[in-house]
Amino acid sequence: MNALMRALSAEILKLRRTLAVAMVWVTPAVVCFINLMIASDQENTFGSLEDTWMALASNHLSFWTILALPLFITLETALMANAEHSEKAWKHLFAMPLPRWTVYAAKWLVGAGLTAASSLVLVVFTILNGLLIRSMRPDLNLSLDVPVLPFLLVGAKAFVISLFILSIHTYIANRYRSIAVAFGAGMVASVINLAAISSDNGIQYFPWSMPASVLPGMDGIFNVTTITLWALAGAAVTGLFGMILFTRRDVL
Amino acid sequence: MIDKKYPDVLIQTTGLTRKFDRQTVVDQLSLNVPAGSVYGFLGPNGAGKTTTIRMLLGLIRPDAGEVSLFGKPLRSHRLEVLRQVSALVESPSLYPQLTGGENLEVTRRMLGLPRQAIDRALGMAGILDVKNRLVRAYSLGMKQRLALAMALMPEPTLLILDEPTNGLDPEGILDVRELIAGLPKNMGTTVFLSSHLLSEVEQVATHIGIINHGKLLFEGSLSQLQAERQQYLLLASDRPEQARELATRNGWRLLPGSNGRLKLEVNGPADAALVNRQLVQDGVNVHQLELVQPSLEDIFMTLTKSPVG
Ligand SMILES: Nc1ncnc2c1ncn2[C@@H]1O[C@H](COP(=O)(O)OP(=O)(O)OP(=O)(O)O)[C@@H](O)[C@H]1O
Ligand SMILES: [Mg+2]
Q: Nearest residue CA, atom 30 of ligand 1?
């Protein structure tokens, strides 16, 4: 445990002045900017007026869960792994008297931390964006009674489900020296994701699609709790399996 | 200074072998690195030095043979023995967006060392003044020194350095040489140092191992290697075939690789004169006679040039 804490604290220090940290707020900012553009279109009414906040959040969350979140995880894991690949740092890390798994686990934990932080930033930005839209579009009659807790809950659920993707990408990014493999995998997954989302049952089976099950409209169709449990089990299995595979490899 | 809780041989490999796609890169290597030594591990490019070092650190697995550090098999005691080992393998592993100090801090956190260790190590490597500069802005030599500081930071019992003077200017090479030479005495550290230049290690090493095509060609103290510096006589004449025959008949030992000229094992100028007299008496006209004292570099070249396998 002590060794894991040491590896983790080293991993956190490595984040200093990195793009990986900047992306934590840049990604949600982009999602919010797109939504601001949509809201500035006077024709757009965001559904029934009573649920305007939920409708607004649903718009933000669609972009987030379907596109931004999986790509965010792809990017963050690739950036963190590339810091080691490009400097051939694995030989240094793995020649240290720490169990190899702690280094891998620290990377996963930092990836999870960054994803959680970005999810939280998204919720905060969504609310701020809503308030901005409220002043821009008085016709929408957005109340000041912001449903903060439900927003947080949905963001948290999407985060927990996305851990499955994180486990898969942590392995791919660290296993393959070329950053193109990690990005390629993320992009192929995103394309399949779009197909899976538009099919009847795809969301339940494709890891990259699972976070979309938290969207308000999906309530009646899928059992989010079941999907969350499956995603967690998937995260644990692929995480452990990836860790074992990775730490047994020759370090060249 | 050498702590007696360690055995006399800090690194021992037995029959160490590693293949890369069927090519045997390290071949039945049996090394013995004595405690308190500076061991120069020499070999030309591609000899298998880095591959050997990777196996010493448990980074790659041998196909056969075993590594023991501090008398304990690496396979079963990896974490325990690595606690006393530091290494710099090939290029420095640094994070360019961090400062030099922060780079050491990353390693310090992983090893759980006290904070003072950072400045002390930077001072030893002579780069304390650039501690707060981003490594991105470091020169090649500064990076090399920082990597060296990183390896020295834990004050290891065994320090493994793979071509540590890469990218250093003459002054830097001198600094590092001095630093390394003093380590056994000042820090109780045994140094295992790879290089492809004999001239680079002969001034610091107490022991030498020479490897080529993955095979160990020589291992011993520097004085043992110097003892191999057999003087020889280089001789050219108008009738080389007859000269060869005569010299052999007179009991001189012929050395290989004379390239048209005769190469004979001799002991001093008196021998040279005797050979000359014997040949001239038998009607062979000697037109060149040279007594050669090979340098260590010559020995190294001879050893590593000879066809192996
Ligand atoms: N990952 C690898 N895959 C295939 N062959 C390899 C690999 N690593 C090393 N080799 C081969 O093994 C041989 C020895 O390489 P090694 O790096 O150990 O040599 P070296 O003695 O360190 O050389 P140098 O002085 O150039 O650093 C070389 O022929 C090299 O091509
Ligand atoms: Mg090498």
A: B46
Number of domains in chain A: 1
Average pLDDT, chain B: 92
Give the separation between CA B175 and CA B180, rounded to whole angstroms: 9
Q: What is the pLDDT of residue B108?
A: 98
Contact B39, B202 (CB under 8 A): no
Evaluate whether B207 touches B39 at the Cβ level (below 8 Å).
yes
ipTM: 0.93
**Residue B95 to residue A14, Cβ atoms within 8 A:** yes
CB–CB of B110 and A96 under 8 A? yes
The shortest CB-CB distance from A10 to any of B80, B91, B110 is to B110
**CA-to-CA dists, residue B219 to A141, A239, B43, B62, B206, angstroms:** 86, 46, 12, 21, 11
pTM value? 0.90
Strands of chain B, DSSP E: 9-20, 23-29, 32-34, 38-42, 64-69, 72-73, 85-88, 158-162, 190-195, 207-212, 215-221, 232-237, 253-254, 262-265, 286-292
In a domain, A101, yes or no: yes
Residue A49, pLDDT > 70, answer no
Nearest CA to B44 out of B304, B306, B309, B294 is that of B304
**Which of A13, A88, A98 is the closest to B106 by Cβ?**
A13
**Residues of A with CB below 8 A from B100's CB?**
none
Distance CA B208, CA B192 (A): 10
- Give residue B25 CA to ligand 1 midpoint distance, Å: 7
Task: Inspect the interface and report whether the beta carbons of B94 and A87 lie closer than 8 Å.
Answer: yes
Contact B35, B7 (CB under 8 A): yes
State the CB neighbour count (10 A cutoff) for residue A116. 17
Which of A101, A228, A239, A61 has its CA nearest to residue A166?
A: A239
Q: CA neighbours within 13 Å on the CB side: how many for A81?
A: 26
Residue of higher predicted confidence among B309 and A19 = A19
| A58 domain-assigned | yes
Q: Tell whether the torsion through CA atoms of A70, A72, A73 and A74 is positive or negative.
A: positive
Per-residue pLDDT tens digits for A163-207: 999 999 999 999 999 999 999 999 999 999 999 988 877 788 899
What is the C-alpha separation between A128 and A156, in angstroms, rounded? 18
Pick the CATH number of B230-293 from 3.30.70, 3.30.310, 1.10.287, 3.30.750: 3.30.70
- Chain B residues within 8 angstroms (CB to CB) of chain A: 54, 57-61, 79-80, 82-83, 85, 87, 89-98, 102, 105-107, 109-112, 150
